[in-house]
Amino acid sequence: MNVLGGDLEPCAFDPVTGYFRDGYCRTGGVDAGFHAVCAVMTEEFLEFTRARGNDLVTPQPHWLFPGLRPGNRWCVVAARWAEALDAGVAPPIVLEATHASALEFVSLADLEAHAFDD
User: Could you give the CA distance from residue 34 to residue 46 in angstroms, rounded to a whole number?
Assistant: First the structure.
């Protein structure tokens, strides 16, 4: 289920995102980070998360990870998105592709305020 109460929509297939690399921001007992927020990458967010030890830009072929660029959609850790929100660099999110478990970390109002507008 997504944060709006509907069926969870896919976040991205190019590159393939999600903790389970199925294109969806699904979470489960093995996903301790709650990769639940479908975010549209921005330069500011990519720099922010790199500065905190999570480099999403550099390709990691051994993990089949091509590296991200601004505009890519990616399932990010809900707590990291909340941290970026507090720092004023939260990227836009796709509400329909953001898992309901994200609401354990951020309010629906904050998510809606950062909704991606195609």
Answer: 18
Distance, in Å, from the CA atom of 105 to the CA atom of 118, rounded to the nearest integer, reads 25
Percentage of the chain with pLDDT > 90?
Answer: 83
Residue 93: strand pairing partners = 39, 115
Tell me if the pTM is above 0.85. yes
Buried b (16+ CB within 10 A) or exposed e, 76-91: bbbbbbbbbbeeebbb
- Determine the Cα–Cα distance for residues 91 and 116; give it in Å rounded to an integer: 9
Counting Cα atoms < 13 Å in the Cβ hemisphere of 26 gives: 13
- Calpha distance 111→115 (Å, rounded): 6
